[in-house]
Amino acid sequence: MNRNVISIVLGGGRGTRLFPLTYTRSKPAVPIAGKYRLVDIPISNCLNSGLNKILVLTQFNSASLNSHIKNSYHFDIFSKGFVDILAAEQNVENDSWYQGTADAVRQSMKHLEKYDYDYILILSGDQLYQMDFREMLDFHIENGGDLTIATIPVVAKDATGFGILKSDDDGNITSFYEKPDYDMLDGLKSEVSEENKRHGKEYLASMGIYIFTRSILKKMFDEGAGDDFGKDIIPSSIGKYKTLSYQYEGYWTDIGTIESFYEANLDLCLDLPQFNLFSSSPIYTRARMLPPSKINGSYVSKAVFGDGCIIMADKIENSVIGNRTRIDKGSTIVNSYVMGADFYQNTTEIVLNDRAGRPNMGIGKYCYIEKAILDKNCYIGDNVKIIGGKHIPDGDYGTYSVQDGIVVVKKGAIVASGTHIG
């Protein structure tokens, strides 16, 4: 079947709900699972689906994302594949930045003219899932779709936070509501599997994954359909174009908030996590050529470690430990995500800091960290206690912030010895 496809990964906006992780980086550049970036997920899904023509649209805080993509994805000279960056730009025809998801793709269409493609796959850069896009493409082609939207069944409680689609028995979308009120849900149930019905998952939520037939998307843009796929393009396409729902049955989560980001990472520590890092479909990322992690005298349970760590902690439990993390003796890490570091301190600097009583990069001696996210390159002194929970009011506190009871220590923060948070 003809799968002449170009994939577009949307780099996202300011990502305010993931602050402070997005203070210096875009959402797709946020580190996840100890060694990856969020953008690695959609790119890996494309590559594992045999789709190797990929463009990433960037706008806000794009430097680290651009660097990661440039250093991670290389194709040999005999391949027609690529992962390229399209940065937002002002020109004589348009002096404004992207006004929405659809506008980002619209402004980029002129750059796609040099490529041969029949279908456009549009993806978000801040979601966690494993999906074979070939199956969705086959569904789109076999059913003569103009626009196919990947959907996932959800319960009524979650439905109010998504764009909810109603489809008929043939998969045609008949109506769409963006984040409907709870009292609007009665007439929005769709046909789902018996297992989903048993779990009350009878509402189809848009996953933000779209396939457009090339000519149709161009026609929509020529008609001025709007700036956003969820608010404008999808509602206007229903009844006018063949708009289909492709039901996905696997694990999928939107990394939209600190809480969802925290939960998605800690889920990886379970015996059988919902997102399987150990499947035959690898997640690709930058090859850093780091040494293996070294663990000395620590009790470890349900933990995921990146590469190049030096661990002398007393206890690490239900936590994700990122690349190059250093944790000194006597410390305990529980229910936390420590992102690690971008570089190693040299031994001379470590000795000088110890003599001067300054914290070294990593986590010092006899610390206790619970329900926290430590961004990269943090300097945590000795005898520091960070204990998240609902007892701490949400807010920004300088070197750290709190959201939903989760303490987020900012990138590069210095936390002096003896500090107590929470």
Automatic annotation (TrEMBL):
Gene3D superfamilies in UniProt: Hexapeptide repeat proteins (2.160.10.10), Spore Coat Polysaccharide Biosynthesis Protein SpsA, Chain A (3.90.550.10)
UniProt keyword annotation of Nucleotide-binding present: yes
Enzyme class: transferase
Superkingdom of origin: Bacteria
Gene Ontology BP annotations: glycogen biosynthetic process
Transmembrane segments: none
GO MF annotation: an example: glucose-1-phosphate adenylyltransferase activity
Boundaries of every Nucleotidyl transferase domain copy: 7-268
Keyword Nucleotidyltransferase among UniProt keywords: yes
Name this protein carries in UniProt: Glucose-1-phosphate adenylyltransferase
Organism: Chryseobacterium pennipullorum
